[in-house]
Structures are given as structure tokens and as C-alpha cells.
Design brief:
This protein is an alpha+beta fold. The protein contains 5 helices and 8 strands.
Length: 190
């Protein structure tokens, strides 16, 4: 019980830290090689206690181990990359579901321009058909493109992708024969 109270106090203290407006006045920052950071797949973010100095954050890939906690207000040196989040259950970077990605795009004016208009199911899965630019394609529930099912947007009105998705799920379970007969739009022939 004492450990729980101690952890709760530490968390409260970390959240209570507020940087005064002139906190960065006396900060001496080491020069960050931004190009080297970006070249190794990192991202430059404000770091340190009050975000006074830029740091190179390692962008983690899907499946990489991650930690969600901020220690006393100090930001982490690594974070899950674009379209990923840190799962509290597995403590690994996992893909965000469709609704989470859609909220990211809608909440950020910079990414809204040219961002895909995602179609999501109520449970957070990606709808079978997704369009980007002038193309529409069949995708898995996690949003991964299913090969061989892409058409021009003006041809996609009746694109359902049910057959393509069923074929994909069958192949993921080890089925390697071809019991599905899908057209180029991922629909069942017939």
C-alpha cells in the first residue's frame, strides 16, 4: 500500500511541475545535428524539463518495446512512430485503429491538407474500401492494403471488397488454395 501511495505522489508531483515563462532564459543547449537525427530515422522535439533544448527522439517501429510514462515531466528519448501508439498491455508499439488515425488527421491542421479521408467501422476497424487521391483499394481491418485490388476512384462506386477481405483472412490462416473468385474491385463474381 505504501508503494502505491508513493507512486501516486510521484505521478502527482510530475503533473504539478509547471515551467515559469522565463525557464529557458538561462538554458545552455548543446548543438543538435538535426540532419544526422533525421537521417537515422529520428525526429527533433523540444526536450528537457521545460522543453528548452531540442533533442533527437528515436521513432520506434511496430513491435518495438515502448514505455508510456513520463518520469517527473522529463520527456522520453523514444516514441512510437507515425500511425503507432504504445499499448499499455504489451508495452510495444502497435498500429492505431482507424478511428484513432482519423482523429489524429482531423485534429491537426497541418496533416489535414492532403490527408486521406478514412472510412472507419464503429468498432475502430478500417472499412474494406479506402480511397487516397485518385485511387481506391481494398484494405484489411487494420488498414493494410490487400494486393491486386486497386482501381481508379471513378470506377470504385460499386467496390465492396468483401471477397478480397475474405480471401486475405483465409490466406492468413494458412489457406493456400484459391477458393475465392473475386473481381478487380474485390467483389464476389456473380
Amino acid at each position: 500500500m505504501k508503494i502505491f501511495v508513493l507512486l501516486a505522489c510521484c505521478a502527482a508531483a510530475a503533473n504539478a511541475l509547471v515551467c515559469p515563462p522565463d525557464a529557458c532564459k538561462g538554458a545552455t543547449c548543446t548543438l543538435l545535428d538535426e540532419q544526422a537525427c533525421l537521417a537515422k530515422g529520428g525526429a527533433v522535439r523540444p526536450g528537457g524539463m521545460c522543453g528548452c533544448c531540442d533533442v533527437c527522439i528515436t521513432l520506434l517501429k511496430e513491435g518495438d518495446k515502448c514505455i508510456q510514462l513520463l518520469l517527473l515531466g522529463v520527456p522520453a528519448t523514444a516514441e512510437c512512430g507515425e500511425g503507432l501508439k504504445c499499448s499499455p498491455e504489451s508495452q510495444t508499439c502497435v498500429k492505431k485503429n482507424c478511428l484513432e488515425r482519423k482523429a489524429d488527421f482531423e485534429g491537426n491542421l497541418l496533416t489535414r491538407v492532403g490527408a486521406p479521408k478514412l472510412n472507419c467501422e464503429d468498432n475502430g476497424d478500417y472499412s474494406p474500401k479506402q480511397c487516397l487521391g485518385s485511387k481506391c483499394m481494398c484494405v484489411t481491418k487494420k488498414g493494410d492494403r490487400i494486393s491486386n485490388y486497386m482501381v481508379n476512384i471513378w470506377e470504385a462506386l460499386d467496390m465492396g471488397c468483401e471477397c478480397a477481405r475474405a480471401e486475405y483472412e483465409y490466406s492468413q490462416k494458412g489457406g493456400n488454395d484459391k477458393p475465392f473468385n473475386c473481381d478487380s474491385k474485390g467483389n464476389y463474381f456473380g
